[in-house]
Each structure stands twice: as structure tokens, then as C-alpha cells.
Amino acid sequence: MSAPKKVVLAYSGGLDTSIILKWLQTEYGCEVVTFTADLGQGEELEPARKKAEMLGIKPENIFIEDVREEFVRDFVFPMFRANALYEGLYLLGTSIARPLISKRLVEIAAETGADAVAHGATGKGNDQVRFELAAYALNPDIKVIAPWREWDLSSRTKLLEFAEQNQIPIAKDKRGEAPFSVDANLLHTSSEGKVLENPADEAPDYVYQRTVNPEDAPDTPEFIEIGFEKGDAVSINGEAMSPATILTQLNEYGRKHGVGRLDLVENRFVGMKSRGVYETPGGTILLEAHRGIEQITLDSGAGHLKDSIMPRYAELIYNGFWYSPEREMLQALIDESQKFVTGTVRVKLYKGSARTVARWSDYSLYSEAHVTFEDDAGAYDQKDAAGFIQLNALRLKLLASRARRHKG
Amino acid sequence: MSAPKKVVLAYSGGLDTSIILKWLQTEYGCEVVTFTADLGQGEELEPARKKAEMLGIKPENIFIEDVREEFVRDFVFPMFRANALYEGLYLLGTSIARPLISKRLVEIAAETGADAVAHGATGKGNDQVRFELAAYALNPDIKVIAPWREWDLSSRTKLLEFAEQNQIPIAKDKRGEAPFSVDANLLHTSSEGKVLENPADEAPDYVYQRTVNPEDAPDTPEFIEIGFEKGDAVSINGEAMSPATILTQLNEYGRKHGVGRLDLVENRFVGMKSRGVYETPGGTILLEAHRGIEQITLDSGAGHLKDSIMPRYAELIYNGFWYSPEREMLQALIDESQKFVTGTVRVKLYKGSARTVARWSDYSLYSEAHVTFEDDAGAYDQKDAAGFIQLNALRLKLLASRARRHKG
Amino acid sequence: MSAPKKVVLAYSGGLDTSIILKWLQTEYGCEVVTFTADLGQGEELEPARKKAEMLGIKPENIFIEDVREEFVRDFVFPMFRANALYEGLYLLGTSIARPLISKRLVEIAAETGADAVAHGATGKGNDQVRFELAAYALNPDIKVIAPWREWDLSSRTKLLEFAEQNQIPIAKDKRGEAPFSVDANLLHTSSEGKVLENPADEAPDYVYQRTVNPEDAPDTPEFIEIGFEKGDAVSINGEAMSPATILTQLNEYGRKHGVGRLDLVENRFVGMKSRGVYETPGGTILLEAHRGIEQITLDSGAGHLKDSIMPRYAELIYNGFWYSPEREMLQALIDESQKFVTGTVRVKLYKGSARTVARWSDYSLYSEAHVTFEDDAGAYDQKDAAGFIQLNALRLKLLASRARRHKG
Amino acid sequence: MSAPKKVVLAYSGGLDTSIILKWLQTEYGCEVVTFTADLGQGEELEPARKKAEMLGIKPENIFIEDVREEFVRDFVFPMFRANALYEGLYLLGTSIARPLISKRLVEIAAETGADAVAHGATGKGNDQVRFELAAYALNPDIKVIAPWREWDLSSRTKLLEFAEQNQIPIAKDKRGEAPFSVDANLLHTSSEGKVLENPADEAPDYVYQRTVNPEDAPDTPEFIEIGFEKGDAVSINGEAMSPATILTQLNEYGRKHGVGRLDLVENRFVGMKSRGVYETPGGTILLEAHRGIEQITLDSGAGHLKDSIMPRYAELIYNGFWYSPEREMLQALIDESQKFVTGTVRVKLYKGSARTVARWSDYSLYSEAHVTFEDDAGAYDQKDAAGFIQLNALRLKLLASRARRHKG
Description:
CATH topology of the largest domain in chain A: Rossmann fold
Structural class of chain A: alpha/beta
Domain Arginosuccinate synthase C-terminal (chains A, B, C, D): 180-398
Oligomer: homotetramer
CATH superfamily of the largest domain in chain A: HUPs
Largest sheet of chain A: 5 strands, parallel
Number of helices of chain A: 13
Number of strands of chain A: 14
Largest interface: A-B, 105 and 105 residues
Strand order of the largest sheet of chain A: 3-2-1-4-5
Helix content of chain A: 40-55%
Keywords (chains A, B, C, D): Amino-acid biosynthesis, Arginine biosynthesis, ATP-binding, Cytoplasm, Ligase, Nucleotide-binding
EC number (chains A, B, C, D): 6.3.4.5
CATH class of the largest domain in chain A: Alpha Beta
Radius of gyration of chain A: 25 Å
Subcellular location (chains A, B, C, D): Cytoplasm
Strand content of chain A: 15-25%
Pfam family, one (chains A, B, C, D): Arginosuc_synth
């Protein structure tokens, strides 16, 4: 790979990406463009602008954007249509944000004439893979620089030295090492590393930042009603809202009731197991409610097919293949199933849990006429069941006859 | 089907199966053998003996058995190795009990020279399918009688008339109609019908019989440690126990903390949607803990394969295909994966939820040496990730080049 | 089911469906509408009109249609995009024609005010299921009459008696029983029953009607070039043609070279095994060529996903679920994959086989630059493979370490 | 990676691996052990011994073994139980041989105290992955040396120079470059590269080495009968034979009749497409016959499950994951299905094709009593089909009602 001339950096404004910014300038002598996105991580973005300016980035090379609506509308919601869970439990909060960042990096590179993009993910994690696969899928000729895989700033001490040598301001609380590493966006906050590294040790309370402890949550349950249209949430308690607003509100409900905590040991794409603590307050409610509305509006053939491909879909997103033909094919399948997933679900929030307690829809396939224990007025002829069973049993009988024949 | 001469009836001792007993005698003039199983449903069995005797069943034709250990060891535990959930949520508590009952019915038929078996399931539900497929799979020549599909006792009034005409005692509280229908065994209690028939109405509190309301559960969390060997639970808090004892104890923990309630609209095999309220206190804890121990002892390739076939496995059990070659093939696959699923999980129980908070094992695949944020002493070369990404990206780049080529 | 007033009958003009026509009139006293379709079965349709008239059908109740283009365009081609094979070998020639016939029956019922449709399939086969599931999926209130499951004309003798009593002319060669049963359309001819019933006996030569015996095929191979656009065949040897024309031509090529014979024992949806002899001359060539063009235009992720869902897709069609949400979902997935499946394949036809020998496309993903044994000018860095392997190996090493640890 | 001290080399005795041998000695100054296996590639092994000795290998460090029986029994046959085809067409002849070679390399390393193994696969292909994943899965601490990824002998000229400088004899016909690259074993011969690199060019005749051109095959078909026990071939024409003998004989039948040629563009695990010409004469017959015997002895539920996991199983083998938990899990599933796959198949060989024409078995599930067009004496009640269809249709009717409701 020839040296990059102009690099678009995914820039948070924090110490680490500021060091990367400087390192790119000094190591490659290249022009740096910064991209700072508001994905709902809950941090001010303007300080990032000031810091970038201070580090010598030209104003026209500083891109700061609020991408929350796009994030929820085009990434989070399509994923939730699938009820996606990685390894049965993880709501993919980090995974789903990476493709959007890469997409904007590549687009800004095209706008600014940059030939490279850079990110601050390490060489051990999944994020490097997600950033880079997305970037290459969108621009096959882009260069991707992953400083953590290249430089020799392998200890905290060296990083701080580099910062000092390069006049990068170090916030007081960044002198010591953080007790764990955090990623946050509108969908979730993840924590990993350091104090969490031994999966036999319970996660300390201070790791949780996004939700109250269920023990401290209100003693009274709260009920909310989530409206859906074609598989996407569109309202809360009857009030229509934009995608990002809905997720923001659900986050607040979830936070208050301690919903969405997960302590997980998962399998990284790069081959090792890792332990993470996830808080996905709104997403956990959303998954529950989406399943609730599907229960009455989705046909069993459709639902079982969706369930059967879900693990693969989740794995693709986890592994960084959002921009791949197979993810798009699965999305086409999933979206096709959601045409009538429209209606309302009532969810009960209480002390860490979110449970569907009622659901209704104009598009319901639930037929009280068929299922009733009362007289069904001929909707269903119980005698049909005899034939149904006989034909389903036929092959089993033939197997049993063979088994008997060959026993003695 | 020629008329049966001797029928083994799955007999609970309750009103409905007593009516069936009598109906079989009068309709077919056949000898009846009763089989009453203790599956952990929490009812005395001896009254069933007395009632059977009173209805004219010869003592040698009355079979009363405690099958709880067999139920948990040979049915529940194998299923839990798969983390089986039907339609994402249902722990299959009713489905998994039916094959065992059918197996004993067929065995007792062989022992007593009976040519038929009978059950009390209706023509609208899944249980008829489960009973009958299992029976035919075990004896292709057995006759199965399903009185609910045959007789004309189509209303509560007619049933009670029949009972009175035939001197079947009717408990006072059975005069009126039950407000919903119940099935129970050591794994779960299910409720459906009547007051539950409208899925838009929240289930009334009195439907729940097996667990305390989470609001009424203790205000302090409780932690338990579940030991596993080869995928099966073998101890609680360090004390080794038999399968049924473990499940019984977990049920008590779950009951106390309000764990395992589920309000679900599901798709029946016979083609309609139905709404059920399930309480699976111990099973819900067991699933959580089993996932917990798999997190550190199961390889990702193995785990992802298991996850991908799980929906099919669960569907087979739900649909009544326990005794089918494909269920046995999937079981072979699952069991093969569990050889090292041995270790201990700590679970926190609180107000309706059960969450893994720690897990450890001599067979752990978790490698702190690899995952650490600290210096890993060369366990993992971050530069390998670059090659890994490049080769995973190659096809995406070729796709992107094609897309660009054909855009203009 | 109340008695039908007006029935649309799938009418071939042959003896069996003429008997059904008369039986419907006499049994139900209902008006009969006939639908006779040209699906490419190779028979004149006008005699069917005359016969219907002779049996008292009003001219406005006689529908005769050439549906060959619709058949290939909307049914055969979508299915071939999936490379669908039932049980690894069967090209689904009968299965794919049934939904189209049902669709027209239901549409004609709506046009003519009929409340029922009728078909001539027996109660043992798959076709009854296919006809009826499709009909119900398109009109939930339609009545379906399947005379073979209802009447008591259970022997050839009784059928002929009924025909004679009702003045239905019996062609001389229909007096005796056919030595096997045949279904034909533009995609295939199937033969089953009678002389074919023992799968240990080789099928007699006279069973094959649609292809020459490979031993009698030309001694010289023939090469044809099939052009594809978005997964569908659009030309032969450079000449653009309509879907039905292409399949007709491919049938002629296949017939001449003895391509597409299959002797199969398959599993029917109704639970039994059956033996069929299939001739699918054009379809066999088409499958081979479609795979050939996919080889260079389809990404591996896309292709492997398609392969993994294909058996389910084929099973759905075989079982009669063409008009089901899950088939449509899978179709959406498949169609999404075909956007660039455009190019040309050269196929060699010789003595019973059709083999791809060359393929090219403007949309090819094949990169000689990457794969070449010669100098690749830096397109691919072989050192990347080391990292790729190391990370893929990581979990296997951790497994091996565990195995070693626990051996001694 | 520290320098290896003693290396076990997969040594063919040919020019390339001789150069590797010398390069290992000179580059690493390490002791070399050679392993030469007879996998049925059809070459004498003793010349390899002489050449190794001449290159300075101590006699006790030269391992020459006939592993054909192990190859077929423990690798080829288990794979054929799955009817494994990669990308619908490829019989995995190269893929399945690599794990066995790696297994012996690792075992010999343990016996001889070697700390490394080496292979002659390039950095662009799949074989490097297969060799190395297998080696690491069997010994997590083994070093693997892949000279083609390390050295700078990047052109034919440099290789020949190195050979001359190191007194490695160069066979006259090896001076020029081979027009394509070959791999062979008892299962197949593959050819790729050079003259085959353009998939739009038909493969020249001289590429095919293992089978006669179908045009030159006998004008008269030949029929053979293959006996199976539990999924494995055990006899030909009634004569019991060992696994390797059977495959050898089937190869001869296939060769003679031009069976098993395949021209394929496939997707390599390392991300690129590649074109190969494969000849798998005996394997092609074996697959056909195995499917033939499964048709009558395998239940549909079992067969459909097998079919659905086959693509994944094949992909695992292709990608080099023979020694992985998931392949072993799938194998357990597959083997479970083969318990009754016992019987005999008659296959017709003619001019490039192998077709099942008859099959019979004591374990057949085919029931003429059920399927017959004649009177079935009550084996099957056609009326059952009505109920079967009604219940399968129920959900489709509910869907259709909804669709109608919302149309207006």
C-alpha cells in the first residue's frame, strides 16, 4: 500500500483519536479530515470541532453530523425486523453502528478527495473488521489505516508520552487508565476489558451507566403501548414519533426500569471469546414488542422461516458484513415478511424486565372463531385433524414397521 | 378401523378422563386399562386409583407411576441441551411431556395385550398430534382413540349429563365451567382458553398459579450456583442432585422470585394461532444458566451451528415429532456438542428475572491471555488481523468494482 | 360443506375428466364450467371444446387458454433462479404447473360466479394438495371438489360403466388400462404407477416419451450458447426469444440428445414413497446453464446462502405452498441475488448429458488478475493468507489446548 | 515464531517439494523429515525415498506410507454419507485429502520430536488453509511453514536456478512450465491454472487425464450393482471389497465410460473465484448410487434434514474445517441417519453419465401397498387427505381472508 495523501478519520474528540490524528499527520505527513458523528452516544460534539481545529485541521475538513435518524431508520429498525440476537442474547448495539460510520467516511473521502480512511479500533476486536469490510464494500480502492495495528504505542505510558510531545491536551481524568472500555450509541452502551476480564467475577455496579439497577427501579410497574407499521415502531402511547425519537424515549423508559442489562461471554469473529456488559434499554423493549406484534400478524410459515435464518443474519451483522449481498438478500426476505406487521403492543416494565401483556391489530391473523373452546359454529372441523395426523404419521408407521421387522 | 377390544387410557382421575373412561366402555364395549403418571403436576395420584376402581377398572388394569426422573432425565434435559425455544419464547413444557406418556401407553398396551390407546386431547390442539404421532412411531399397528374427535358431547351440559347418567361423581367446583384450561407437569404450567381468548386483554392475575407475582417477590435478589456436566444440570449451590430434584428445586427458586411467566400468542401445528400463559419457573432459570455455561465452554462454530438448527429442533418437538429420525439426528448433533459443557454458573434471581452474572469451568475456552487489553505476551499478533480482513474483504471489493464499472 | 352450485373443472378433454364432469352434474346437480389450459403438454385443445359441448357445457362456460408464456415466465423461470431440486434430483415439473392451474380456476370462478372448483387428482398423490392449497390461498371461501376422494368409482370397470351409462365416448385405446400414468407440460413429462411400481425393476423403454434414448442420440456432440439476463434465459445462440419459446427450443435440443431422464424414488408430502420416471429435457439444460452463469456472476456469500435455502424452497413447491408467505419470502431473497446474473454459457449436449464448458459475462466477478499462477502485479498479497489462517485457527487451537489439558 | 528445529515436510518427491526441502535446510538450518503418502495418486513412491536420501535426509527420517484404506474409510466414505457437493457440483476430491496428510504430519512430528511441519501449497489457494487448520487443530503448538508464502522464488526461472545451485535434479520435462497444475488422489484429479485460467475458453482435451472422453467411451452401456451397508459401499456386483478397493474399481468403471468430468468456476475460501477441471470417476458413480439407496431406505424427514445441512457440511470441508466441532457435530447427525442405508443399487454407465436404474433393500421404506394405483386393501384411506389438506390450508385461508379484508 502506497502512503496515503489525505485521510478521513473517525474522530470522537477524545484522547485516543486525537493521538491518532496527530500520528497520521506525523507518520504519513498526510492531510487529515475529521468525521465526528452524533449517533446518540450522549456526548457534545462541538468540543470535538475545537479540538480538531487546535490540532491543525482546516475548518472545511471538519465534519460533524447528527446521524441519529439515519442510524435508527436505516440500520437499527431493519435489524429489529429480524428479531436479531447474536448468540441468543446480544442485540448487536455496537455492530450495527459501524457500517454507518464507514459509509460516511467513504462518502466524505469522495467529497474531499481523500484516498484513505482511518479508525481507532484495535487489532483484537470486531470493530476493525466491521469498519474495514464496510469501507472496502463501498469503495474497493479506498485505503484503510488502523493505527492500533501499526504503531508501537503499545502501552498507556507511551501513548501519554506521545500526547505530551505533540501538545495534545490530556484531561485530568484520562491520566489514569479507565477501569474498562466503553462504546455507546443510541441503541446501547457496551463495556468490556480490565475489571470485566474474568467472567467468573460479577461485574461491579459502577460498570452500568445507562440503566438504573433493577433493585433501585420503581416499585410500581409501568405500561406503555408501542405502535408498529410494517415492522417498525411508529408511536408510543398513541403519539407518532420519528425513529430516533422513539428509540430515545424507549431508552428513557428502559433506563428508569432497569431494563436491558446483559452480562455475556461472546465469540468474536477474530477467534477469541470476550466478556461484555451491555445495556440496551430501549432495544430490549423494542425486541419484546416486535415479537409481540408479530405473534398476531405474522403467519407461522413466515415466522418459522424468519427464525431459522435469524442466527445467520445476526452473525453477518456481528461479523461486519452489513454491506454484503447475503445480508441484503436476507433483508429482502425479512422485509417481505413485514408488510402486515402493523398494530399495537402493550408492554409491562418492571424491575429489569419488559413483557408483552397484550397486542391487537387490524391485520391480526388470530381467529377467536377457530381457536375457541366454545362452539366454533363450524369454523373448524375437528375430524379433519384425524386425517392430518394419519398422513403425518404414515412415514413414522413405515419406520416403526421396519424397526419391528428387523428386531426379530 | 375395527373396534378396539382393550384400550389403555391416559387417565388423570379428573372428570373429563373419567367420562372418557366410561364412554369407551359404553361406546366400544371394550376393557379399559388406566395409566396415571406423576409428571410433577402436583396432584395426588391415589384418588385416581380409587376413582378407576369405582368405575369398574380391575386392579391389575390400573397403572399409576412416578415418571418424574425419567421425564427430566430423558426428555427435559436433552431438550435443554439445545436451548430450545419455540417461536423465540416458549419452553415447550407441554410438548415435551406428551411423548413420554405415549411411550408408556404403548408399553402398557404391549404388557396388557391391549390393541388401542386413548387420550383426552381435543381435536383443535397440538396434543392430539403429539400423543398420536408418538404412539404410531412406537407401534405402527396400535389404534388410537381420541374421544373428543368422535363423540357428540359437544357442550359442558351434555358432558355433565353423561356423567350423571353414568354415576360419575362430579366435584362441586367442576359444575361450573373453569375460566380457562390448564396443563401442568414438573417443567411448567400452561393456561389457555376462555378468559385468555382475546390476546388484546391482559391475562387476569388469577391465571398464574405456579409463580408469585414479581411485584410480590422478595425485594432482595438471591444468587444460586448451578453446576453442569456435559450439558446437564447436576448440582445447585454445590449439592449434587438427581435430575427431577434439581428441576423441583429450581421451580421453587423460580416460584419465589416470580421467574418464568410468559404471555404468548403462538402458532399451533394444526394451523391456527392460540394464546397461552405459561409459567416455567425452573426451566427459565435452567435455560439462562445453560446458555451461561455454554458461553465459556462451547466453541463458536459449535454454538452457531446449534443456534441455527435450534428453531427446527424446537418445531419438531412442538409438532409432536419427538420419535422421528430427524429429531434423533438433531439430538445426536446437539449431544456431540455438549461433551465439555461442564462447569458452574451463578444466576441472580430478582423480581421476575433470572440473569447469569458469573460462570467458570475447568473446560473454559475463554482465554484472558488472548483477549486482554493489557500486554498479551505474544498470544495474539494484531498484524494477523490485517490479513484476515483483507481476505474477507476480497470478494466485497470485487463486488464493489463491478458495481462501479456498471454505474457509469 | 354445502353443495356447490357452479363448479369450474380443470378439464383435459380426456376420459377421466369427462367422467368427472358428468359426475359433478349428476352428483351435485350443479352447473359446470370447464377450464382447459395449454401448458405445453403437446395435445390439441379444440377437441376438449367439442367434448365439453357434447357433454352439455354452455359455450360461455368453456374456457380454453394458452398459458405457456405465463407458465414459463412467472412460474418456471422464478423457480430456476433458485436452482431448485427436490431431494437432490427432481426438477419439480409437475409441482410448478399446479399453482397456475389453480390460479386460473379461481379467477374463472370469480368471473363466472362459480362457488367451487374441481380437479381430477387422486387422494394418494401430491397434486390434490397442490391444487387445493393454491385455491384456498387465493380464495379462502372457495369450495374444492376432489371426486376421486369422494366417489365410489374405485375400479376401471366401474369408471367405464359410468362412462357408458352417461354416453361419454371412450376412445378405443382407453378401454384397457394404461400401463402407467402420465403428466406432461412444457417443462416435463412424468410417468408413474403400474409397470413402474417396483423400484427394483428397471423402467421399460416405452415409458420414455419425451426424449430419445441416449444410445440413439447423435454420435456427435452439439454446443449451444444460452444467454441470461438477471437470472433468466433470454436467448439461444444469440437469438432473443420469449420464455416459452426458449424452453420449447431447449426441449427440442434435449430431446434429440437424450438429456434429462431421471428414475427416482421420492417422498410424497402425503407420507409415502413413490417411484417416478421424469423427462425434463430443456429444464435439465437450463439448470446446468444457470449454474454455469452463476459461477462467474454470483458472489460466494450470495451463492452459499442460496444453496442453503434451496432445499426448503424446493420442498415448499413440491408440497404445494407456492402461494405462501414463506415461498414469497424465499423468492424475494433469490430474486435479490439475480440482479447481475447476466451473461452467456456454452453447453455441450451429448448422449444424455448437458455440461457447461465455457461462460462469460460483462458482470463477471472472476478476476484472472487475482487467481493467476503468473505474476499478479500485486493484486493479492500472499502474506495476508498467513493472518487469515491464524485467526481462523485461533479457536481450533484453543480447543486443541483444552483437549490436551484434559487428556493427561 | 521462533525458528523451527526439525520440520516434517509433506514430500512428493517432485521438483517443487524437493526445492522446499532444500530451502528449509538452508533457510532455517533445520533437520527435515519427509512424509510421502500413497493416497492413490498413481505415482511410485520409492523414487521419493531415493530422492530424499540424495538430498541428505536420514533413512529414519523418511516416512513413506500407503494410506489409501484410511483415506477412503475415514475420510471419503463419511463425506459421501452426506452426499456432499460444494457449490452444487464439486465432489471435494482435493479438500478431503488434506486433513489426512496434516494428521500424519503432526503424528510424525510427535514421533520424531519435530516442532514444525511444512507443505508446498501456495498462498493463493485453499490447500494452505486446509493443511494449516488441520495441523493447528491437532497440535496447537505446532509451527507450520509455508515456503511459498515466505520465499522470494517467485518465478519459474528463480526456482530452477535455486534447484541447480543446490544440485536438485530437474527432470527434462520439468524445464518448461507445465501448462496447468494438477492434484490427484484416489478420489479425483484436479487441474487448474494456466491454460484453464480463462473460464470463457473451453478446456483443451489434454487436460483430462483420468477419464476417457465420453465420445471415445464404449458404445454399449454397462450396468453395475453396488452394495451398501449403513451408508457405505461394501461390494460391487456382489463381491465384497475393502473401501479403497471399491473406489479403485469404481474409478476404473468411471474412467472407461468417461464418467465424472466437471468444468467449474468455484469460490475459494480465500476470496477469489477460480476455475478447475475435475475428474472424479468413481466418486461420481458412488454419489449417484448412494442417493439411489437412500431413496428407498431413508425417511423423508431424515433426508430433508440431511439435504438442508449438506451445503454447510460441504463448505466446512472445502474451507479446511474437517477437524472442527461443527463438522463433527454434522457428522454425528449424518451418521445417525445411515443406520439402515443398506441395500443394492444398479447403475447404468454410458458415455459420460452414471444413472440409477433400480434399487432394492431389506430395509426399504417403499411400500407398494400404499402407493399402488391398484386397490390398496385399506392401507391408505384417501379421505384422510381431505383433513390433511384442510389443516395445512387453514393458515393460508386466514392469510387470504386478511388480504381480502384489506383490499376493500
